[in-house]
Each structure stands twice: as C-alpha cells, then as structure tokens.
Amino acid sequence: MAVTRSVLCFGLILFFFVLQRGVFGHVICPGCQAPFVRLDHGCYMYLFSNFTKSWSDAQAYCRSKYANLATITSQRENNMIVSYVRSKFPVSFSWWLGGNDMAQEGRWVWVGTKSVMTYTNWYPDQPDDSGGREDCLHLWQNYAHRWNDEWCGFAKNFICEQ
Ligand SMILES: [Ca+2]
Ligand SMILES: [Ca+2]
What we know:
Blueprint: H1 2-21, E1 37-38, E2 45-48, H2 55-64, E3 68-69, H3 75-88, E4 95-100, E5 109-110, E6 136-140, E7 146-150, E8 157-161
Parallel strand pairs: 4-8
Antiparallel strand pairs: 1-2, 2-8, 3-8, 4-5, 4-6, 6-7
The structure holds calcium ion (CA) (2 copies).
Residues 126-128, 130, 134, 148-150 line the site of one calcium ion.
C-alpha cells in the first residue's frame, strides 16, 4: 500500500509541477486567459495587439483589460518579448511599451509601476526627442527591435502586461 501511495503522491506532485510550469504552453495556463499569454513560464502575462492605437489609446485599452502598457525591467524580459514578437508577428510591426517622459523631458518612467527606468535597451543615439515631441517608448521594428522614443500620437501595435 505504501508503494501505491508513494506512486500516487509522486504522480500528483508531477501533475502540479507540469501544470505550474505550463508545459502545455498556452493551453494549460492557470489564471491566464486569452488574449493574454504567459511567456517562458514566467509570472507575468502579456497581451500583444494585432491592431494599432496611439500610445494613450493603447494604454486605455490595456486598462480596460486590467493591465498597463508593458514594463520591461531586465535583458531577459526584453529578449523574451522581442523573440516572441519576431516569431509570431510580421517584423514590420512596431510596439508601444509603457515607458514615457511626458511629465518631465528626459525622465523616463513606466506607466504601470510609476517607477523610473533602470534597465534600458535604447538604440544608439536614442532617446533623441526628435522634433521636441517624442515622449513614448516603442520597440523599433527597423532597428532590431531596440528602443526608440517616438511621437505618442502615432498608431502602433502595443503590448499590455498584467
Ligand atoms: Ca521626450
Ligand atoms: Ca527617437
């Protein structure tokens, strides 16, 4: 009986481990409902829009999903997101993120956490506030999806994070 119980116990542990790790990808993803996806079995859920909006409208859309435009705080998270958009969407897509310097020029903060950026992945010579009107962060499709500041009124695809 002890053996049976051990096997049962091991099976249960394995089952919950598999569930927790999301080994079945997006099919079994506890607490994660479409259109959100969980990347790399991480704790955060992302929504990748297949339509475009201005930065503010994109943020409003994210809020309507109880999320914010995405905050990227590490190279690992950045790589994960860039790999995902490259593999799943046309490379011509450009993506709004939650970074902006609307309140104070040159002071970049995340809309979701209100915190000042620490990790950054700017393309060389960015942010340049070109024309004195670039206050929103996007993944730059033409430059290896590195970061650029852009006019917030442009319509772009966007990434929400919950
Ligand atoms: Ca700016
Ligand atoms: Ca720029």
